[in-house]
Amino acid sequence: MGKTAAKKCIDILLLLLFFIELGGMFFPSLLHELLGFCLLALVLVHNAINNQFYKNFFRGTNNTHRTANKISIILFGVSLLILAVSGIALSPDLLANAHFAENLNWRSIHLGAAIAALILLFTHLLLHAGRYIHGRRFVIAAGAVFVLAAAGIFGMPYLDRWFHQVHVDREKIVQGEKVPFRGRVLTVYFSRVGNTDFPPNVDAVSGASVMKDKETIIGNAEMIAAMAHNAAGGEIYAIRTEKTYPAGYIDTTKEGKKEIAAGERPAIREPFPAAEEYDVIILVYPLWWNTMPMAVESFLERYDLSGKTILPIVTHGSGGAGDSLSALRRATNATVASDCLTIYSSDIPASRQAIADYLKKYAVK
Which Pfam families match (predicted)? Predict the structure, then answer.
């Protein structure tokens, strides 16, 4: 096989491996890591074979096309480096003992680097193709690249949210910095877990608001509440409804929408915690249809929190806090903090420090 044929084979393998790795959430983590090492090895081989690019980097005239190509290649290399570093930090198998800087949200960094690498790869391919195709065919190719890049930008977070299995070590990730408060603290949360009869084999994906510690199902809001409780101390209370929500996430969202449309306040199981014993309420809830769940509103309307301060923490799939703070202020006579902490569902396992930082703004100075 000649050098040119070898280069083409390596380039084809690189493209195949790159796109396979983008779908890593569909494969076992060990396979994803092994293919990642293969991809990086091929990248090194590719650069060694194309070393003329680096030898001629500062030679010749830098027109617009050449400059753009140089920038895209350099940024693509940087994104691959970030992918490698974040991959090591996240590794559950081959490099499980090499974790570092665990306060960083490596999962979001990894996903962001993958999206950047995808865009830069398409940019590089388009610039390279521009040497050989022109006119209408180039416009069509550019349009195709734009569509594919847009699909990657919006599609990868969606796939990650709905197909990435979330398995955690609860005892480990809830630990972190302590935040002392003046007065007693109560952490209150509403989660699907505890209000739904889940089958044992339920998929633990962040988009469905559940994760697993071995075989134990944990709700997203429940995990955030555990982190906040570990940081602030005090007591913890789960809002439990008398009704049971459907096990299917879509069915639950439909039920939640009906409650909001009808203004239905689900009945809350008693007993309630003694309000007079607490000064600060950390309230954790998911964003449902751009507001807080009616079960939370039902709890607040029945529970006298006058003279208390509420610190809201909202978990969401893309809507932030939505209009939930306005609904919260209408539903309670407590003082609601001027701001809230919002946590994207896929970021929850790495949110412990963000929770502590938010609580410190309202703790003892």
Answer: Flavodoxin_4
